[in-house]
Amino acid sequence: MEGGHITNEEEGSNDSDSVVSVKHEPNLENQSLNCETNERFGAETYYKMENRKLLMLGGFGLWCIIGGFIMSFYLLPKIVQGEIQKKLELKNGSEMYPMWQKLPIPIIFNAYLFNVTNPKEISNGEKPILKEVGPFCYNLYREKIILDVSSDGNQITYNSTRIFFERHDEGCISTETEVTILNLALMGTVHIMLNLIPDFLSTFEETIPLMFPGIKNVFTTAKAKDILFNGLLLDCSDPDGTLGLVCSNIKGLSPPQVWQLENGRDYKFAALKYMNGTSEGIFRVNSGINSLQLLGNTEEWMGENALKYWQSERCNEISGTDGYIIPPPETKEKIVFFQVDLCRSIELEFEEETTLFNLPARKYITTQKTLSDIEENKCYCIKHKDPETEEESIQCLKSGALNLTPCFTAPVIISWPHFYLADDEYKNYIIGLSPNKTIHENHAYVQTMTGIPLRGYKRAQINMFLIKNEEVSLLNNVSEGLFPILWIEEGTDLPENFRKMLKVTFSLLKIMDIFKPFIILCGFSCLIMAIVLYLKQNNMLCFAKDNQIFDVQDDDKSIHLPPPGYPAIQNPYSNNIEHFNMMNVQRNMNGLGQQFDGVNQFGINRRIAPKPADGFLRQ
Fold first, then answer.
1. What is the rounded CA–CA span in Å between residue 619 and residue 126?
2. CA-to-CA distance for 386 and 32, rounded, in angstroms?
3. Average pLDDT score over residue span 167-185
4. Exposure class string for 410-442: b at 16+ Cβ within 10 A, else e
């Protein structure tokens, strides 16, 4: 039966002999529903898996962002701070401790003398004409001899020693060179007697030719090595006469620049003798173990926690390091050094951010404020007691000079070289000075993160007032003013092996600095990508229209089909599956692989996508 369920294969045959073939026509409706259900189930599973992947991607991005911020602003700074402290703290095993105890290289020490070119004219009241001679070069070796370490390791007590050796580099001047300078021994003795026993000056006048054989004026000519370290003779060969009385007073009041010879009678004077082969004193400093900000800070000197030279607690305060180790700066405004040779603490103020040896650094300098005659520096003025009336008064110097008489027991005045940053009165008294910021300022280049000094130079000029005095014939007509004698500089660069260590450390830090924002950026990228893909995958917000392949209206409800190549899923809000099946049939009818826009027979606007994956169409 044609088109029926039973067909006779051979016509005219018997019923018993006939072969009957039964053919079951497929139930298209049931097959369509089963296939539809499977497709919906597969699509739902697919979307859940895709959303889970996007959720994991977004979680990873969020973790990178949070972790990056924690690493950047907390974890890495803590790690770096810890490593810096291990390297810097003053204890056995740290990298800085042996260098702090004894520098592996010598410190550069240069001295410059002011040669007096017109001594006769000065004696008659004319302005001094000076010519700088130098440098006279030396290597300075410093060593800290550890005397005690506190039980908790936080304080170290040591004795600081220094010793000089002449250096013969190119550009250095031979110390055999003769130079004419102000006779410091003579002028210093006059100052001391004026302050203590002015009536004794007339007696002293008689002894001057004996103490200084061949003297013609208030100046002396000698070799540089004798002026600086070896010493100039003070002859006391007449112990029973007036000279003996003067020499006995020298013994009782001898400043550190004067020492008695082995014969027990004569003395010598040298401007820098007190520095060579001697101790700067006993220091107690903080090791930085408990607080790196206190690293190297001087807490006591000579058993005292304050000085006794100046007029207030602030000026007598002992604070700051010795300059060869500096704590990592909390702020960049200033750093503080305790300078024994200046008998006070000195502040260096921030000047600029720079680089040195390819390392980031901050430059600190002394400014005019340091030796200025402003109100806050009045405590460095000197109490003067009139020997006749016994009235006390405060004597202050003009800007750019500091009176060290209370500290040195000698009338020594300190300034910066060539009266740099000093009052014009001091500069105008001398002909031949050329103050220059570059070569005359004190400065320190400090590594920004660790505080390690990369380079440092401290400079100072020794002066003495030349004054008239009627009791001393050599001083009757001299021109009066602050007279430069010499200036010195001391400094060095950080040793090469420590510079290499810092460069390696900063190379690692640079890599870490690049890595930190990369992690955060990667996190943001992953998070944004996850959000965008999620919106696109679920046809949300601005992606709904772009990703909508079919938009079939059914009772004001929509059926949305996924991108080409993926199973179809019915809009969960639609109860009408008929349109869904019709669209699949229509898609087959129109042929896959074709792409056009138009209106199909159902009046639906659609875009046919490229051929989907195998197995997508129902047969």
1. 123
2. 124
3. 95
4. bbbbbbbbbbbbbbeebeebbebbebeeeebbb
**pLDDT of 20 over the 70 cut:** no
**Closest by alpha carbon to 100, among 494, 578, 540?**
494
User: In whole angstroms, how far apart are CA 287 and each of 10, 103, 465?
Assistant: 116, 17, 42
Gyration radius of the chain's alpha carbons:
47
The answer to whether 88 touches 291, Cβ cutoff 8 Å, is no
Its pTM stands at 0.73
Q: Rounded mean pLDDT of 99-115? A: 93
Look at the block and give the residue holding tokens 């950080």.
494
Query: Which residues are registered as beta bridge partners of 77?
Result: none
Query: Which residues, 6+ apart, have CB-to-CB distance to 171 below 8 Å?
Result: 135
Distance CA 95, CA 175 (A): 38
3-state secondary structure of 150: coil
How many Å apart are CA 511 and CA 529, to the nearest integer?
Answer: 26
Spatial contact of 584 and 568, defined as CB atoms under 8 Å apart = yes
DSSP 198: G
pLDDT tens-digit readout, 251-295: 666 678 888 888 888 889 999 998 998 899 999 999 998 888 899
Amino acid at 38: N
CA–CA gap between residue 563 and residue 99 (Å, rounded):
71
**Distance between CA atoms of residues 279 and 159, nearest Å:** 7
Q: How far apart are CA 200 and CA 267, in angstroms?
A: 20
Give the pLDDT confidence of 198-217 residue by residue, as tens digits. 888 888 888 898 889 889 99
- If you count them, how many residues does the chain have? 619
136 HSE (CA, 13 A, CB side): 26
Give the DSSP H/E element, type plus range, for residue 413.
strand 413-415
Q: How far lies 540's CA from each of 122, 545, 564, 607, in Å?
A: 98, 9, 18, 20
Q: How far is the C-alpha of 534 from the C-alpha of 600, rounded, in Å?
A: 31
Task: Tell me the C-alpha distance between 12 and 16, whole Å.
Answer: 12
C-alpha–C-alpha distance, residues 257 and 578, integer Å = 115
> How many whole angstroms separate alpha carbon 506 and alpha carbon 483?
48
Domain locations in the chain? 105-494, 548-619
Mean pLDDT over 600-610 rounds to: 42
Instruction: Quickly list DSSP for 103-126.
Output: -SSPEEEEEEEEEES-HHHHHTTP
Tell me the DSSP string of 238-289: -TTSHHHHHHHHHHHH--TTEEE-TTSS-EEE-TTGGGTTEEEEEEEEE-SS
Phi and psi based region of residue 264 (left: phi greater than 0; alpha: psi -120 to 50; beta: remaining): left
User: How confident is the model over 467-495, as a mean pLDDT?
Assistant: 94
Hunting for tokens 């002396």 — which residue is that?
220
Written as six digits, the tokens of 45 are 């599973």
First to last CA, the chain: 26
Percent of the chain with pLDDT over 70: 67
User: What is residue 366's DSSP assignment?
Assistant: -
**Non-local CB neighbours of 311 within 8 Å, separated by 6+ positions:** 378, 379, 380, 381, 383, 394
Rounded distance between C-alpha atoms, residue 366 and residue 351, angstroms: 9
Q: In this structure, are residues 32 and 501 in contact, taking their beta carbons and an 8 Å threshold? A: no
